[in-house]
Inverse folding.
């Protein structure tokens, strides 16, 4: 059976004193971590952008009673409807694609993939659970994904630079 090693292992000091030096270990190689970081960065920007669209859609729906439609027929005049806002209640467009609902669905599935990217980066870096929660909040609080991505990207780069020996696994 393989004996798992903790993320931080005490090592005897090189100076001969009784103190210990903490050695940083990662859950993967540097290439794996950089790949996870790149995937996380892409998903953070895509999910953050979709969240901003979702917020705009919710404002249009609940503040102004409008949905965004593409195609269909104007319910009042019977004329073809191109692309734009129409009344939510009573229904202003018959047929066509409700872009507002599409934004909701796409953001939901993107958030699922974003959570997978969070978990992959978190597990490779062997961070505490609180950091996973902060990463996950980036996809549900507007603009937070951009801020968190920048912070954690810099942190990963700094940890990789400070611990080049820690990512050697093979």
């Amino acid at each position: 059976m393989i004996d798992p090693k903790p993320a931080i292992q005490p090592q005897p000091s090189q100076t001969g004193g009784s103190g210990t030096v903490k050695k940083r270990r990662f859950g993967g190689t540097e290439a794996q971590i950089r790949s996870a970081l790149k995937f996380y960065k892409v998903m953070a920007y895509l999910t953050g952008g979709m969240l901003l669209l979702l917020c705009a859609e919710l404002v249009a729906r609940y503040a102004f009673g409008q949905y965004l439609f593409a195609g269909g027929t104007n319910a009042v005049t019977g004329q073809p409807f191109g692309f734009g806002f129409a009344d939510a209640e009573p229904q202003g467009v018959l047929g066509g694609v409700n872009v507002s609902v599409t934004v909701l669905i796409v953001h939901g599935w993107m958030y699922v993939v974003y959570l997978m990217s969070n978990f992959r980066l978190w597990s490779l870096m062997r961070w505490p659970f609180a950091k996973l929660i902060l990463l996950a909040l980036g996809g549900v609080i507007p603009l937070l994904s951009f801020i968190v991505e920048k912070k954690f990207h810099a942190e990963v780069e700094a940890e990789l630079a400070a611990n080049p020996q820690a990512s050697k696994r093979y």
About this structure: Residues 12 and 20 are 5 Å apart (CA to CA). Residues 10-18 have pLDDT under 50 and may be disordered. The first helix runs from residue 30 to 64. The chain has four helices and seven strands.
